[in-house]
Give the backbone structure.
Amino acid sequence: MDKSIISAVAGSGKTTHIIKNLDLEKNYLVITYTINNYRNLKHEIAKKFDHLPENIDLYTYFPFLYAFCFNPFLGYKIKPRGITYDYPPPSKRYTKANQIEYYVSKNRRLYHNRIARLLEELDVLEDINRRIEKYYDALYIDEIQDFAGHDFNLLKSILTTDLEVKLVGDFYQHTFDTSRDGNTNKNLHQDYGEYLKEFEALGVEVNEDELEKSWRCSPTVCGFINNQLGIQIESHKQDSTLVEYIETAEEIEDLYQDDQIVKLFYQEHYKYDCYSRNWGDCKGENQYENVCVVLNQKTERFYKKGKLEKLSPVTKNKLYVACSRSHNDLYFISEEKIKHHKRG
Amino acid sequence: MDKIIKRIKLQNFKRFPNLSLDFNETLNLFIGDNESGKSTLVSAIDLVLSGSRSKVERYGLESLFNKNTINEFLESEKEYADLPILFVELYLNDQNNKDLEGKYNSSDLNTHGLQLLCEPREDLSSEIAEILDQEVDNFPFEFYSITFKTFAGKSYSGYRKYMQHLLIDNSLISSDYAKRQYIKTIYSTNTEDAEKNKHENEYRNYKDKFRREELSELNTRIQGDYSFAVDTGPKSNLENDLTIKEGEIALDNKGKGKQCFIKTDFALQKNEGDLDTILLEEPENHLSHTNMKKLIQKIHDSETKQLFITTHNSLISSRLDLRRAILLNSLSTDYVLLDDLSEDTARFFMKAPNNNLLEFILSKKVLLVEGDAEFILLKAFFEEVTSTDIEETDIHIISVGGTSFKRYLEISNLLGVKTAVITDNDGNYQVNCEERYADYLSENAKVFADQDNSVSTFEKAVYKENESLCDDLFAEGRRTLSVQEYMLANKTESAFEILDNKRDELSTPQYIEEAIEWINQ
């Protein structure tokens, strides 16, 4: 069956693309990573079909891993009491992967980042593939860039099934891993070209052209992302918008107080009493007309030197997510200059 | 798609420490005496299908757990790790439902199914250990969890069920609760959710309309801020007020027998779309012979649902296909299917008129005899040998044709019914008694006959043992026939005469005495 990966830029209509391909004929398994995206997809599916059709199963990744893959085959043997999103404590460092304690917390919850490893270790990958093949004709995975570690191995295994597969993602929106675990697939996200080659080797056709243009970001914002962050993105739009670093205390205060404009922080946005989010958390969100990116000290330094491209990949990707949220104008302000609003 | 229960697997459930039993896709007849576990199997199925914790709690874990298992545990070292678990698993056909399929079962089988599991709560292990440390025998039932899971490891409950079923227990016919449950289930399976909501909504509106229009005049007469209204609370909703009528008469106003009949008939109807499984407890209760025959026909014609029926009625078990019978016996925790029997024996019992199979199965000890004369006199012999009335023992005398002894012995070996066959040697003990039954003898099955080939029949043995008694009774007026010949020619009558007139003087032929002593052990 046809298997393809579509590399999509921010705002290019990933969700729309997936929805467009769904119908009431085949049985679809749709997996996404973030809750934001899950809500988007659910909303769009309901809109397209006027209800949530039974032939389309929509999962976020970990519930899929637990309820569909783990529980039917290993639930009775291991009887965990759910998943924990905590990471294994340092005291587990000497636990070996062939011990059950490696996977299960003291409260008998499964470490989310080790479930895929457990499936591999206890040899149920084939069972899972048969189960997927029995119940589905097509597999769509959104936010494919977030598969990492042993989850990427699981993905590789699933790709051997006889299903139609569509993988959609934006390599540069890789801001968190499904699981980080030792050296497994550690270098997966170091190089975009190498990353795509991994998929080609698995028989997945790479499609870079279809979703290379953003419906959301203006040519001005795309130009900024291209030039400053070194990330390829084009725009379907014609209008030019503002991309501006705001200097004066008065203007900064106006922006800060404006509840129509979201303030996007590197981290700990909740310490500021304004309309705000964190860079990484707003991935998959599409509701911001104008965006104000708050630069922390380090990023501001890089910004002023025109060296944003040299930021660490994860920080750079998060900044990319933040900048690409805007339908219209993009403002930058310095976190230093609003420090007096910070609490706690 | 039909939803079928293919197998039940039990552990420590009531009288079954372990049981795995395959079901037929259409009809399953549980046949057995009291305490043999018929109802246990039906309630096990009912519990799992209903997914109701409160139902389990109503029974109480103490009454659900196998007594021997609990006692064995209490007599052991009482280690936490050795605490027994209880489960009931229903293995279903492939319904192409991912929520039902997986290996979440004790067989490690990737298949569709549902499971009720009761096990000690791990989070309370230290509290449990404390209880186990006590000197007195105290089993920590209260520290067990009750969970309902599909084989995919997904929890389910009464609200989120995978199969629709109905239990009709005709022994509880007068219980108001059972009646309500019945009407509720029948109503729910006949209506769509939206339709149901509409009914409920309209019903409430009608009540309100009644209050406004009919009670208004009354209410104007009431002083102060008080008024009469019709209750619309949860206890007086539509489901509670519904009843089922046949013609113009409501179910409640029918006789018990008719109620049983209507309930079963209604549930069996073909248009009863959503109902997958019907459990019928002793449908013979309260039914006349005629209605029973009608009911049997209805059951026979119902092909769309899987039926589980418990009975100790011969008519029901023999007229419905006996191959679907699951025979249970209170002495053993195993079961016998008629397909476990040799094919010709199974067919024999399906065809045989008025067979005594049920009485045989339901007995613990049986004296099998060839004919009426033996049947009539054996009671007296038994009294002579043991000085007890056979009615006061658990021994049954069953008369079957001499040719079918083997059939019964086959079952007695499977079921563990202690069986003594009393038969004639017909002039050749070696061939007719020893060799013929050699394959069927066991510690539970013995054949008794006179070893003297000249004493070839029962009558000869009786005569030989009671010559003067028989001469007294029968010699008078004999011309052509000898007394012996007369007795042979009039077996039943002469047996009656002996019983009526000489019962106290009767002495028992040796082989019959041996049979009686062996069976009475």
Remarks:
- Chain A has eleven helices and 15 strands.
- The mean pLDDT of chain A is 88.
- Chain A touches chain B at residues 67-68, 71-76, 108, 127, 131, 134-135 (CB under 8 Å).
- The two ends of chain A are 55 Å apart (CA to CA).
